[in-house]
Design goal:
By secondary structure, the protein is mainly α. It has one domain: CHAD domain, CATH 1.40.20.10. It is built from 9 helices and no strands. Helix 3 (72-106) packs antiparallel against helix 4 and helix 3 packs antiparallel against helix 5. The longest helix is centred in the first third of the chain and has 35 residues, at 72-106. It starts with 18 loop residues before the first helix and ends with a helix.
């Protein structure tokens, strides 16, 4: 992953919030955060893209958390909008991931020719990158969609009187994550690990959302869930990099260098599978 989400934005229910008012409060905080990324004061665009993608994921998690209060059409419309926002940011995100992975692999080899080739490949990725500090059109569109979705969800929320239980939603999120983990560790397919990563990230956001002042035990649990989703994110990044190399790499480098690069990625994925198994045991998700 480009960056970890261990320090979340201020998206937490207040201690005295009822579910409905807490939902609106978090939406307001998300809108404020989205506005900041439009300005991008002096920061790298990649950081703003990452931050906007995290915002989209937080909003998806919030929508899932409160989904029993909404109609199917309200949920599907919101999910469709958020998928569109994610697609607008995907190319830039994959470019940054590919560069990061290739640069990391270049430091893992003593072969200078191979190292130079990897660096050239990282710099030659054919994705148009906007100038530093200037959000491009795709990002602006994604943020506009995000803000429109927040606005419509606030409007929907005003008509709701029955909201789900926080404890029930947390339990469901944990069980869903556990089930996805068992499937992934049983078959070890990248698609199953990707699903596990998404479920783990959703669980992390549910915990952050509801635990404004966690005790010692809950703090430990949140840190372990964050660590698990981080390692699963690294695994997914390796899968993305390997797929792109195998599709495009033969046009950019010799076959034996490509094979060596894929070999390094396979070793990295193997190490990460061992790490996530260990963390899953601690969380009793196996």
């Amino acid at each position: 992953m480009i960056a970890r989400d261990a320090v979340p934005p201020p998206f937490t229910f207040q201690p005295d919030d009822e579910m409905g008012s807490g939902f609106v409060h978090v939406l307001d905080q998300m809108a404020i955060e989205a506005g900041k990324f439009l300005k991008s004061p002096g920061g790298a665009v990649s950081e703003s893209v990452h931050g906007t993608r995290v915002l989209v994921k937080h909003l998806r998690a919030l929508l899932w958390f409160a989904s029993p209060a909404f109609t199917t059409s309200e949920i599907e419309l919101s999910k469709s909008r958020l998928r569109k926002a994610s697609r607008l940011l995907a190319a830039q995100r994959d470019f940054v991931v590919m560069q990061s992975i290739l640069e990391r692999l270049s430091r893992k080899t003593s072969n200078s020719a191979f190292r130079k080739t990897l660096v050239r490949m990282a710099l030659a990725e054919d994705v148009e990158v906007p100038a530093p500090g200037i959000p491009d059109g795709s990002m602006r569109k994604a943020i506009a969609i995000l803000l429109a979705t927040i606005k419509s969800l606030k409007k929907y929320a005003k008509s709701k009187s029955r909201w789900p239980s926080c404890a029930d939603r947390l339990t469901r999120a944990f069980l869903s994550t556990k089930k996805a983990g068992k499937r992934a560790l049983h078959c070890e397919k990248s698609a199953q690990f990707h699903d596990w990563r998404k479920k783990t990230q959703r669980l992390l956001y549910q915990l952050q959302l509801t635990q404004g002042a966690p005790g010692k035990r809950m703090t430990h649990t949140i840190l372990q869930v964050d660590k698990l989703q981080g390692e699963l994110g690294h695994y997914h990044d390796s899968v993305v990099a390997q797929d792109r190399l195998q599709k495009n790499g033969l046009e950019k480098t010799r076959a034996h260098l490509l094979r060596h690069c894929v070999h390094l990625l396979e070793k990295r994925k193997h190490r990460l599978r061992k790490k996530v198994r260990k963390i899953a045991r601690r969380l009793k998700m196996r």
